[in-house]
Amino acid sequence: MGPGTQGFACGLAAPRWLAPLLLDLALGPGARGQSPSPAEPQVRFRVVDVFVDSVNRPLAAYQLVFEAHGSDVKIVGVEGGESDAFREPPHHDPRAIQKERVILAAFHTGASLALPKGRTRVATIHVQVQGATEPDYEVRLVTAATVKARKIQATVHAEERKTP
Q1: Terminus of the chain with fewer CB atoms < 10 Å: N or C?
Q2: Residue 59 within any structural domain of the chain
Q3: 130-142 burial string, b = 16+ CB within 10 Å, else e?
Q4: Of 82, 92, 160, which is closest to residue 118 (Cα–Cα)?
Q5: Domain that holds residue 66
Q6: Are residues 72 and 21 located together in one domain of the fold?
């Protein structure tokens, strides 16, 4: 082996700086007594469920605006809801989720028997939070409709999912 290299079990030589780098990648910087810099802001991820309550009417369509307020808050993902009618992610601008505001919309043209009634989770939104400030969520229903596109009264709210 030449100077500045260490032997591997397979007989290949590698530079001396590679072993500590591989250890850091495999176990993290704390494995060698290093800790993350206190100047680095803490990054956390949150899951927010969005519910529409159509009371006793079948929910066939909705449009809503979701906003996440706080310092350094970004929407990083959107998933569909719990009922079969809204299982697919709602329509949205994928570039908009890189900011703190997104417009979501979905519709289902199937039979009214397949549509949810009452309170149903229509979407799940993933949020990245950087820093110590806790985010605040705002959701506003633009419209809701039942079968044959008849507009209905409904309410909407967002609820951060509690992690165990």
Answers
A1: C
A2: yes
A3: eeeeebebebebe
A4: 82
A5: 43-160
A6: no
Are 30 and 90 in a shared domain? no
Is 2 part of a structural domain of the chain?
Answer: no
Q: How far apart are CA 71 and CA 77, in angstroms?
A: 18
Residues 6 or more apart in contact with residue 138 via CB below 8 angstroms: 66, 67, 69, 158
The reply to whether 12 and 93 lie within a common domain is no
Cα 104–chain centre separation: 14
Tens of pLDDT, residue by residue over 63-114, are 999 999 987 888 999 999 999 999 999 999 887 777 789 999 999 987 777 8
Q: What's the CATH code of the domain at 141?
A: 2.60.40.680
Centre a 10 Å sphere on the Cβ of residue 108 and count the other Cβ atoms it contains.
Answer: 21
How many structural domains does the chain have? Answer: 2
Per-residue pLDDT reduced to its tens digit, 135-149: 999 999 999 999 999
Flag whether 12 is in a domain.
yes
pTM of the model: 0.73
**What totals of helices (H) and strands (E) does the chain contain, helices first?**
1, 9
CA distance 130 to 121: 26
